[in-house]
Design brief:
With about 70 residues, this protein is of the alpha+beta class. The protein is built from one helix and four strands. It has a four-stranded antiparallel beta sheet with strand order 1-2-3-4, covered by helices on one side. A hairpin with a 3-residue loop joins β2 (about 45) and β3. The longest helix is centred in the middle third of the chain and has 9 residues, at about 25-30.
Length: about 70
Amino acid sequence: DRMVGYYQESNEKLSGKRQGIGSVFDIVEALQNPLKINRRCNSKTYIGMKTMVTINQKTGYLIQCNRVGEK
């Protein structure tokens, strides 16, 4: 089941709502085996096959998770 997101049952795009990340395994895969890492002032974005995970470098806290290809 999904790790993060608002609605589960529908693949329909709803205004203001996102479909969630596939699973915790997608998040772990992006963090352990990133295809690319983007660095900014206080954050790093780990880009995996299915998921992008952004972490605050100073605190280590999760900022956000997105599916690859989402804006």
